[in-house]
Amino acid sequence: MKLGAEGVSVKYDAEDASHALRNVTFSIQDGERVALLGANGAGKSTLLLTLVGVVHTESGNVTLDDTVTTKETLSDLRSKVGMAFQNPDNQLFMPSLYEDVAFGPRNYGLPEPEIASRANAVLARLGISHLKERMTHRLSGGEKRLAALAGILVMEPSVLLMDEPTSFLDGRSRRRLIEILSDLPQAMLIATHDIDLASKLCDRTILLQEGQIRADGATKTILSDAALIEACGL
Ligand SMILES: Nc1ncnc2c1ncn2[C@@H]1O[C@H](COP(=O)(O)OP(=O)(O)OP(=O)(O)O)[C@@H](O)[C@H]1O
Ligand SMILES: [Mg+2]
Question: Whose Cα sits closest to atom 17 in ligand 1?
Fold first, then answer.
């Protein structure tokens, strides 16, 4: 599995003077965990949304295993690439946590016992089994974050895209999430302002500045370049 962008440019509005993304090219392979860093407005969320076809490119392509993604192959892409949005409220829509986690596999036509065993395993893994019957709109911010992640992991995607996964989390939940992520086999691209998460979890970092890739390399090298970090507004 290889997910990539080739010369991707994005403009939200044709009249906008500047691009949200400009000529972005990179790919991530199996087993890679990549941090996506950049100041507010640098284009991190836009890039993740573009990779799952929610935001459209002005030019350039999203590729999966070197095949250019089209409208026809988008559903295939979305079954392989799971995305956790910046705001979990955009992701949770079923009345109870359990129903929400079961929704994806059910929609996929899996048998009910398989759905239950997968959903229960994911809830236990994320430490939120006790919230199973809770109304999703009555979860706390951090619980919503974990609930949204459960809804993605239960689909067993090959690649995980996560937008600020540690925001709203308290210290313990945050450490637990980092541990959980470090045990998962999936390739990951994680947009974050959490430098500690980036250095603990991701060997590689992509640094965005005003919609362009400013650096792509070893996290250690990039984070130790004080001038670069300062120039990128971090
Ligand atoms: N729906 C939208 N319509 C118009 N412009 C948008 C929209 N979403 C984002 N933008 C603009 O695109 C640029 C990139 O935004 P994006 O949300 O990708 O940044 P980000 O790196 O995720 O920032 P943050 O760290 O604040 O989450 C910004 O200039 C932003 O104002
Ligand atoms: Mg963002």
Answer: 45
What are the tens digits of pLDDT across the range 154-210? 999 999 999 999 988 889 889 989 999 999 999 999 999 999 999 999 999 999 999
Ligand found nearest the CA of 40 = 1
User: Could you identify the atom of ligand 1 that is nearest to the CA of residue 46?
Assistant: 18
pTM over 0.85: yes
3-state secondary structure the chain: CEEEEEEEEECCCCCCCCCCEEEEEEEEECCCEEEEECCCCCCHHHHHHHHCCCCCCCEEEEEECCEECCHHHHHHHHHHEEEECCCHHHCCCCCEHHHHHHHHHHHCCCCHHHHHHHHHHHHHHCCCHHHCCCEHHHCCHHHHHHHHHHHHHCCCCCEEEEECCCCCCCHHHHHHHHHHHHHCCCEEEEECCCHHHHHHHCCEEEEEECCEEEEEEEHHHHHCCHHHHHHCCC
Residues touching ligand 1 (Cβ under 6 Å) are 12, 20, 38, 40-46, 86
The alpha carbon of 51 and the centre of ligand 1 are apart by a number of angstroms equal to: 15
Domains of the chain: 3-231 (3.40.50.300)
